[in-house]
Amino acid sequence: MTPSRAVEAFARRHHYRPYEALPWVAAVASYFVFPDYLALGAQILATILFALSADLVLGYAGIVTLGHAAFFGTGAYVAGILAAHGWGEPITGLLAGAVAAAVLGFLSGLVVLRTTGLALLMQTLVVATMVAEAANKASFITGGDDGLQGMEVWPIFGRFRFDLFGHTSYLYCLSALFLCWLAVRRMVHSPFGRSLTGIRENVRRMHAIGAPVARRRLIIYIISAALAGISGGLIAQTTQFVSLSFLSLERSGTVLIMLIIGGVGRLYGAFIGVPLYMVAQNRFSEIDPVYWYFWIGLLMVFIVVFARGGVLGLFDQFQR
Question: What is the Cα–Cα distance from 257 to 300, expressed in whole angstroms?
């Protein structure tokens, strides 16, 4: 490819393509086709946002983390505590959760991003463990092991009340996911997003050309934390329950598994990996309630062996 064609190709990357409408068409169609599963659908949509936030730091910036649930749980607890103590307005509660998670991302990022490799991995895990212990100790606010209860979320805009069937929850989560996806898509195709890919591929070369590597890693870490906080707030508001499991290592590991299934570093990997994992989890737990994790593990083995780039990697192989 000539230099001029390469420049044109990069310039066209931000243009919207017809296939990008497929996830949203499927989401809107699911609202009408599966009316009995809207509550599960709302959790899938919120978890897609969680996986998308993790993909920003892992797939684009190359920051490996095992503590992303710290931001997810922080957003959930802040939104939940507000709703449990007299302020149940959902949108402001969601924004408060995002701000709290972003502050945690800033403070922890100043420390953990000074390290790399295994040290970075362990530092992120330590941060999540510390936040979980803090939530456990503050049981008078968070509910501790019993979970945060008594949440009362007000109707959206004073009109759209959350119902047991999940109609409002589904559309609420879909709207939040769409707005966040628009922001993420614009960001990853911007010069800032391209520099993140350069940092992931070769940090020394990015230092050599004068790129502010440390600052950009911290910025994307904060943005990712805020998006994870929004995801946690969505789950808290739509289920009206928050527990210590929101901060657990299992949740951090599960979101990485979802990304691997869909494809890491691919803007739409979360849209494929999360539904596949959660639907498979739902089906396997019904078929084999005790050993359903075995079938999830077997699925992961097949993906690692035959689709190393995830489901989206298979499409690339077929194209080649």
Answer: 8
Indicate the length of the chain as a whole number: 320
Kind plus residue range of the DSSP H or E element containing 4: helix 3-11
- The predicted structure's pLDDT at residue 255: 94
Question: Which one-letter amino acid corresponds to residue 78?
Answer: V
CA-derived radius of gyration, the chain: 20
How many domains, in total, are found in the chain? 1
Has residue 304 been placed in a domain? no
pTM higher than 0.85 for the full model?
A: yes
Average pLDDT value for residue range 202-212: 88
Angle, alpha carbons 284-285-289 (nearest 5°): 120
Do 233 and 76 touch, CB atoms closer than 8 A?
Answer: yes
Domain residue limits at 159: 18-247
Residue of 181, 311, 227, 199 whose CA lies nearest to 54:
227
Cite the DSSP H helix spans in 210-268. 213-239, 249-262
Q: Is residue 89 part of a domain?
A: yes
Q: Name 160's bridge partners.
A: 156
Residues 206, 192: Cα–Cα separation, whole Å: 12
Is residue 37 in a domain?
yes
Sign of the alpha-carbon torsion through 120, 126, 128, 134: negative
Separation between Cα atoms, residue 229 and residue 181, nearest integer Å = 15
Domain membership of residue 118 (yes or no) is yes
- Measured CA to CA, the distance from residue 220 to residue 109 in angstroms comes to 10
Q: What is the pLDDT of residue 72?
A: 97
Q: Is residue 276 within 8 Å of residue 262, measured between CB atoms?
A: yes
> pLDDT category, 29, cuts 50, 70, 90?
very high
Q: How far separated are the first and last CA of the chain, in Å rounded?
A: 17
d(CA 98, CA 106): 12
